[in-house]
Prior knowledge:
Elements: H1 2-16, H2 23-26, H3 37-51, H4 58-86, H5 101-120, H6 135-157, H7 167-180
Helix pairs in contact: 1-3, 4-5, 4-6
Amino acid sequence: MSSVTANSRMIYAFSRDGALPFSSFWHRINKRSRTPTNAIWLAAGGAFVLALPAIWNITAYLAVTSVAVIGLYIAYVIPTFLRLRQGDDFKAGPWNLGRWSKPIGTLAVIWVLFVSVVFMLPPANPITKDSFNYSPIAILVVLGGAGLWWVLSARKWFKGPKVQGSAEELAAIEKELQSLG
């Protein structure tokens, strides 16, 4: 469930910014529930398809759970890593960790590297086709695909997150949504 929650939020955000195919469909907000229902269904459907092999194969189950954990950790630590790479050129927002930002960020990146390695280890010894942890292959395919997509296409047109509106426009949307409930 945490993976579906996190993935649906990312699907919504990427769709809002026009970074996914069929973005206008995935980023719609359900007026009754005030949630991105289409993005949630995409995340739930993707999780279901990825987990199907786990019904008959414990190796697949272990790989799916490993990929879910590793994927979430990687997704959450990338902004931290990019902030650390920017060094003193980074302009901190109103909420920040002050002088502790760099040490905690460094610790977070190291932790994610450690946990990723742990979750990529095989679950049993000796390593056979049935005890091999296939999550490193899945992670490499996803990161490789995303990297290729960036190099071949997205870097030419993607300009970053889009502002959804002024403070007044967002307040009007919120007021409209509250009147529906």
